[in-house]
Amino acid sequence: MMILDIQQIESQIRRIAKTGSTGVALSRHCREERMPERNVDFQDILNALNWGKVVHDPDPNTDKKFKVLGEDLEGVPLCVVVIIFGENALLVKTVHG
To answer: Under CATH, which architecture does the 3-96 domain have?
Structure first.
């Protein structure tokens, strides 16, 4: 994947993140397991999506899955795995440190 493509994806993810819960959905796995385990809330996820660096995470089932390497609101490293659905929506699959 070209650098320009990653920059475009990063811009798209940030644009979607700015809509908050309108465009950003959480998987059940993320919401019920990973977020409580890691003491992460929705605002932490939005912070990482808005300021983090996007890394492509190749998946044989989709080319729209990406890792966003950022920080939570306290500055603790946070990786957010997202799947982009169209121009205005994404699903947060999981989070980890």
So the answer is: 2-Layer Sandwich (3.30)
Q: Of 42, 92, 93, nearest to 72 (Cα)? A: 42
End-to-end CA distance of the chain: 25
DSSP 22-40: GTEEE-HHIIIIIHHHHT-
What integer pLDDT is reported at residue 57 of this predicted model? 65
Distance CA 83, CA 34 (A): 16
Look at the block and give the residue holding tokens 């947060």: 92
Q: How many CB atoms lie within 10 A of CB 16?
A: 21
96 vs 18: CA distance, rounded Å: 21
Q: Is the pLDDT reported for residue 91 higher than 50?
A: yes
Query: What does pTM read for this prediction?
Result: 0.91
